[in-house]
């Protein structure tokens, strides 16, 4: 394309529309019709419209401004070029929409965002320490705990199961901290029990805290949180 002065057309808006319309026509002819490389199309078109026939400074500045807008669209917003220049009918209202998008949006990364998909429901088994022990075993453990007077109130198999499963509603108060520690050590000694208890504590389902009373020793409180 010859590098000849661009003929001025009316006011600034008219001149910009003339540039965009010609760029649209050239894009369809060279890039779409002749498979010309897009980068070469941009370079040749801008070089072919570098000068204008304006004689005054205001006209030259106006042309320079419009060329800057066109350069920005061609070099930074190929997505808009493909959207607007592919259509033969490039009317003034199309230019307005093109400029609006150019001035208010950024080029997309090319990655389409997929809509959020609902996560599939997973039916996980309930966290349970008591499931490792049957009722007879828990009854024997409860009997030993009551015989040793570990807690301030008697316990049974149901209370211990709730304690181990993290569903205990009323706290159990220790009567002897050292004996309670020895009591729970063999109960949780199997590796599978220890891992499950660690998970239970980590998720906050099973909580061992301490309660301080005036004029009394500190006592651990076993409570479901």
TrEMBL record:
Source domain of life: Bacteria
Name under which the protein is recorded: Uncharacterized protein
């Amino acid at each position: 394309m010859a590098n000849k002065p661009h003929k001025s057309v009316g006011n600034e808006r008219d001149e910009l529309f003339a540039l965009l319309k010609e760029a649209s026509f050239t894009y369809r002819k060279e890039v779409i019709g002749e498979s010309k490389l897009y980068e070469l199309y941009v370079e040749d078109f801008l070089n072919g419209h570098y000068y204008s026939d304006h004689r005054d400074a205001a006209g030259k500045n106006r042309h320079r401004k419009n060329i800057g807008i066109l350069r920005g669209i061609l070099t930074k917003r190929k997505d808009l070029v493909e959207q607007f220049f592919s259509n033969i009918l490039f009317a003034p209202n199309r230019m307005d929409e093109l400029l609006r998008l150019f001035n208010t949006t950024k080029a997309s990364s090319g990655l389409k965002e997929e809509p959020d998909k609902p996560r599939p429901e997973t039916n996980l088994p309930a966290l349970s320490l008591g499931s490792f022990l049957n009722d007879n075993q828990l009854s024997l453990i409860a009997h030993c705990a009551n015989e040793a007077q570990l807690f301030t109130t008697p316990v049974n198999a149901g209370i211990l199961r709730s304690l181990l499963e993290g569903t205990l509603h009323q706290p159990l108060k220790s009567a002897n901290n050292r004996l309670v520690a020895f009591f729970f050590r063999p109960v949780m000694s199997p590796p599978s029990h220890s891992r499950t208890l660690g998970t239970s504590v980590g998720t906050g389902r099973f909580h061992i805290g301490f309660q301080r009373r005036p004029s009394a020793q500190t006592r651990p409180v076993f409570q479901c949180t």
